[in-house]
Amino acid sequence: MSTVRTDLRAEITSLLDRHQQLAVSGNAMQGFNKYYPPDYDPEKHSSLNAYRGKHALGDRARKIGEGILIVRFELPFNIWCGTCNNHIGMGVRYNAEKKKVGNYYSTPIYSFRCKCHLCSGWFEIQTDPKNTRYVVVSGARQKEEDWDPEENGGFAVHETDPNQGPVDPLAALEKSTDAQNHMNNVQVPRIEALQNLADHYSSDPYTHSLRVRRRFREQKKIEKAREEADESIKSVYGLPEALALSAEDDETRAKAKQEWEEGRQALEERESAKRRKLGAEVVSVMPRASSSRSSARSGQSSRPSSSSGSKTSDPVSALRAKILGNTAKQSISIGGISRSKPPDPKSARALVRRI
Q: Which H or E element spans position 100?
């Protein structure tokens, strides 16, 4: 009985030690989601994949011993397969065998070996870090459709011409000297001026803010007084509230005075034109009035029994012609521009009644 208890106690102790080892190795939380066989030893097997003899990437790492990893590769350009001579468009994806084949300085060069989906031929594409592009190595032919920036008015991004001569050292020195002079004469003074301006405005922000707020208050008072004056003018003259009145300053006064002078001159020209037209009508009416007066005298001597209405009409027309003639003479003597008032019609009627 004591032997059984001792064995049970030893088994419980071993289980506790195993659980502690799992917790130390960082797999304590994973132990609740994975099955650990009884013969699993965390000191001997670093992980369950190592215990089962599998790779973490699964079937993609079936050639990992040869340095080959299966990846999903997308064609960067259009190609023609060298085996079946079929066209394969850009963007077609393959399960390619990725392998490191060299280095360009510290940048690795990778090779992607793909199997054509239209035949059983293989083609290989490598990276070119020097020219930042992909190159077809074997099994296919690339479609030449590169865009040349120099032919289209641009600039070459990468200069990889092996036949290009060395750079002129004097030209490089002159370029660097011009850049240094431009920096010393233009850029540095400009930066210093901006720095001084920034220091000036940020030296005492309270004073600057006080000055700006005082200016705003003064402008606000001026605007309020002008609005009150405009409202009083609108209320006196019955102007609409939506009417915007112009500001009263020297320029506005000069402009208003000029417009008033132009309007006054136009009014005087219209009045003088009316007076000239009226004088011409009077000149044409005066012979008719004299002829009517002579005919009236002859009629009175020959026909004394004529009606009183015709006697009254001849003096009225004569008086009217006389008034019009005096008016025309006055307008002509003044020079075409007269400010005298026209004859009062009431006085004219009184004269006619006396006659």
A: strand 93-104
- Residues 133 and 205 grouped into a single domain: no
Q: Of 142, 173, 196, which residue constitutes the final position of a domain?
A: 142
Residues 28-46: tens digit of each pLDDT: 454 457 778 888 888 887 7
What is the rounded average pLDDT of the residues 317-321? 76
Using an 8 Å Cβ cutoff, are 289 and 350 in contact? no
Query: Which range marks the domain in which residue 96 is found?
Result: 61-142
Segments in 1-111 forming alpha helices (H): 2-24, 48-52
Helix or strand or coil: residue 175? helix
pLDDT for the residue 266: 92
Q: How many other CB atoms are there within 10 angstroms of residue 288's CB atom?
A: 11
Q: Is 211 exposed, middle or buried (0-12, 13-18, 19+ CB in 10 A)?
A: exposed
For every residue of 42-53, DSSP letters joined together read TTT-SSHHHHHT
What is the spatial distance between Cα 344 and Cα 296, in angstroms, rounded to a whole number? 28
In this structure, the answer to whether residues 88 and 120 fall within a common structural domain is: yes
pLDDT at 134 over 50: yes
